[in-house]
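hiii, so i know i said id send this last week but things got crazy w the move. better late than never?? heres the sequnce for the chain we talked about at the cafe, plus the structure i predicted for it. fair warning i was half asleep when i ran it
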Amino acid sequence: MQTILGAGVPVRKRPCAKTSRLLLKIILKWLNLLTEIRCHHYSGGMVSELHQLAEKVSQLVELAQALRRENADLRLSIAALTSENADLSQRIQEGYQRVAALLEKIPASDESENAA
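okay and structure toks below
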């Protein structure tokens, strides 16, 4: 399993795009074969349906690739925002500790009244 730019966010390689491209190649080869030999067994409607199927598979491959790119970008954003969140949490904790230290230095009101 890989990670994106060492951000520790796992990225899995999925065979989906590979399979889709392979399926598209097979469909296109069948279309070319049917067009070249002009088989009389296949109706024009069937060839048309195969063309439509090839177009849909092509669109699906493009969509899958776009979604993978978007997913990778979102994973990078998550890593950056997680880091920023940790930094801000640390700053809040440090501020809380400084305020607590200042409050300890202020004398209590009961002690100041008794001393007067």
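btw The chain has a mean pLDDT of 77. thought thatd interest u
miss u guys!!
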